[in-house]
Amino acid sequence: DHDETIQHLFLECPLAKLLWRTIHIAFNINPPVDIASLFGTWLARVEQITAARIRIGICALLWAIWNCRNDMIFNRQHTLTFLQVIFGATAWICTWSLLTHMDSRELLVTRCNQWKMVARVIFNRFG
Q1: How far apart are CA 53 and CA 23, in angstroms?
Q2: The pTM is what?
Q3: Is residue 41 part of a domain?
Q4: Within a domain: residue 1?
Q5: How far apart are alpha carbons 99 and 96 in whole angstroms?
Q6: Is there a contact between 13 and 109 (Cβ–Cβ < 8 Å)?
Q7: Neighbours of 104 (CB within 10 A)
Q8: What are 59-79's pLDDT values in tens digits?
Q9: Distance CA 2, CA 68 (A)
Q10: Where in the sequence is the domain holding 58, given as residue range(s)?
Q11: Number of domains within the chain
Q12: Which residues cross the membrane (predicted)?
């Protein structure tokens, strides 16, 4: 019964917070504090090529969150878990990695596997 904001959807809702927590644990990357910093100064201190790779992953994460939201609202799917969102995001990253140089592709796929492993550990411990 409330208007949904981009800030809430991508950063503040419980699912988004859990997703960002898995990123923090897997890669030691602190989540952005707001949408403006996400697309602005959030990665200012990170090496440019590394920041570009992180942005690929973040775009995939945002797309996966958006698709999850749409499934819940329009398809009435309420059994989605954070693992499904992460696996969706990593599938997009692996697909998009095919458009990158081989070195970047291997690193992106390796990082996806690392993120999924951390997510599985969290799921196994806390459900």
Answers
A1: 14
A2: 0.88
A3: yes
A4: no
A5: 6
A6: no
A7: 15
A8: 999 999 999 999 988 988 876
A9: 18
A10: 6-126
A11: 1
A12: 49-68, 80-99
